[in-house]
Amino acid sequence: MSYEVTATRRRPQAFEALAGQEFVAETLKNAIQSQKIAHAYLFSGPRGCGKTSTARILAKALNCANGPTATPCGKCQQCLEITKGASTDVIEIDGASNTSVNDVRQIKDEVLFPPQSSRYKIYIIDEVHMLSTSAFNALLKTIEEPPPYCIFIFATTELQKVPATIKSRCQQFNFRLVPIERVKQLLAEAAAEINIKADDEALYWVARESTGSVRDAYTLFDQVAAFSGDHITYDKIRDKLGLVGVDRLNAIFEDAAQNKTQEALLKIDEFLQNGVSIEQFIVNCTDYLRSLLLIRAGITKEALLGQSRDRYSQVVLQAWNPIQLERALSILLQLYRDIRYSLSPRYELELAFSRLSWLSQYVSPSEVKKAIDEAKSLLMQGSKAPAMANGSQQAHAQPQNPSPRQFISMPQSEPVQAPQPQVSAAPASQPSPAQASASANPYLNRVITDLPRDTQPAPSSAPVRNIFAPPPASPAAESAPAQAAPSNHATAPLSAQTNNPPQFFNTQSVPPDMGTTTDDFAPPDPTPPDAAPSVSQPSFSYGGAVPPQQTAAATPNQSNDSSDFRSLAIKELSIRDPMIGSSLLQTGEWIKSGSSVTTQVSSTFLKMQLDSHAQNISAFLSELLGEKVRFEVVLKQIVAVAPIEQNAPVQVKILCDTFKGQIIGHSKKTEQEIANEAAQRNAEKAATENENATDEEDEE
Ligand SMILES: [Zn+2]
């Protein structure tokens, strides 16, 4: 007996035998039973799922000696001839090789002759979408009004290429891919027929490889049966088919999930050596990752997963969260698209697995957003705390600071009490830029403190406030006329410690009795009448760019005058000291209220800078306005600068550093303490003002 391939041997010969196309079979049977036979049928669907077989069964059903019948006998002459493909009245045409209009004209001519020995003359045209447009047009008329004995059955794998004019003249049937379980069942039957033992898993893989095409499955089965002997096992077919089973995928993905790049790459090499094609491997990997994603989504249905849930690696499932699994799957899907244009698909594959090995550290944008939100809410909590009212950093800083005078007279032998001993200890007389920028950031500063060359650790009591030092005074500032007044820059520290870095000259070194400067350090409390400029009652305002609510309060005329005054003042002061000028340019509107000119700045640093020159500016403005005024700078926002406490989350510190934001510490003070501090501050301020008044009188 000659060898017959399984696909031919097991070609369905009756509607009942059509696997996976029950709907089509049922409809056709009913149509035949009720004698409602169309003159044109169009079968569409993937290859190897039974279109041609169905066409032949239909032909038999119509031409069977017992017919038309839904159950052709398969034994009469017509049935036998059709089965063999030898019937003169059932003409099978391959549309792919008979595409021209002449081929169709030949059909048209033949149609005119009635069937020789059968009831119907049946044309089965396969791959009908391959016909040319003119061929289709030539066919239209024939299909629409064929002779009553003539029936057309078209089959196509690409329905979208069939013209709508043809489709609308046909009864359409859509064939579907056969489910893997059904294919596996068919294969088991086929194996049993030829007395071959076949393991379930092996048949599963053959069915899976066929992707729902029964013909493909049979063809592959024949191939597998040929080299497997009388027992088809997974191990035998695995390498031959280039399959990468779930166990091997588990192994390689466990390596990737555990960041064992080397092992993963070695395994890939092994697979490729064994003849696994790269495409095949990627396909298997994507199947695998999809199954893992489904498992993580709570799906346990074996038909969807392809394997029992238990066969998938728990290591990978635990190492990667769904977001990382999605990412892994998308890397491999992209890889599949990329390799067809790649210089070296193998490199692409290795690169992909190298990336997968780092996937555990992959942070998705949504996770980043969540982290930022958390950090933000921490920062917001800080700003909401009652102690964080306007300028409350002073409340923190002042009580713990040593008095400026103490500080200045401090002998060098006690550097621990100095605000920045680590800087003093550094041999360089000028700070490096890194140090300078570090000094503006408590967090960075602490990092610098930890550097090995810093022999002396920063005392924990060192007030962070002191770190905010102004940049080295420029020569212009030193020579400015206003600088003749007692100044922090000119006098004390230089005489005391000449080789100290300029950081030492910070705002804290200003003695409290020197003019009005101290007032600037004790910032306006929300309540005191004169310290906090009353926005609602400006007697005069000097137009600035920033605060809208204040410009609204001023009439346009005033605003014009005031901005003239502001720009004039800035211009003049810039000539005397460019640094002051540039700082002043960043101030908001200038508001004159009583004997003070107030403006707002948005950064603490700017406020510190301007505060250190407030005396000079006040003097200049007084001269310009012809009356004694005091220049005051307030922070625009409710922003507090306080030492970042040790227990502040490191993320907050990093965020503050990275985004150069305002640093808002956590306050642990009780409301009572805050109230006490405010009272104390008010008392100090009142005392200082009295003192100032006395000084001014003395000067006059
Ligand atoms: Zn028959």
Radius of gyration: 45 Å
Number of strands: 11
What overall geometry do the principal axes of the alpha carbons give? elongated
Helical content stands at 40-55%
Uncertain parts: 385-558
The helix tally amounts to 34
- Rounded mean pLDDT score: 73
**Largest β sheet strand count, sense and barrel closure:** 5 strands, parallel
First-last Cα distance: 132 Å
Count structural domains: 4
Strand content: 5-15%
Task: Output the keywords.
700 residues, alpha/beta, Helicase, Ruva Protein, domain 3, Zinc Finger, Delta Prime, domain 3, 51% helix, binds zinc ion, metal ion binding, DNA replication, DNA binding, zinc
Please explain how this structure is put together.
It is a single chain. The protein is an alpha/beta fold and 700 residues long. The protein has 4 domains: 6-174, Rossmann fold (3-Layer(aba) Sandwich), CATH 3.40.50; 180-241, Helicase, Ruva Protein, domain 3; 246-361, Up-down Bundle (Zinc Finger, Delta Prime, domain 3), CATH 1.20.272.10; 390-637 and 670-700, no CATH class. It contains 34 helices and 11 strands. The strands form 3 sheets. It has a 5-stranded parallel sheet with strand order 2-3-4-1-5, covered by helices on one side. It has a 4-stranded mixed sheet with strand order 8-9-10-11. β9 (590-593) and β10 (596-601) form a beta hairpin. The longest helix is centred in the C-terminal third of the chain and has 29 residues, at 671-699. Mean pLDDT is 73; it is low at 385-558. Bound molecules: zinc ion (ZN).
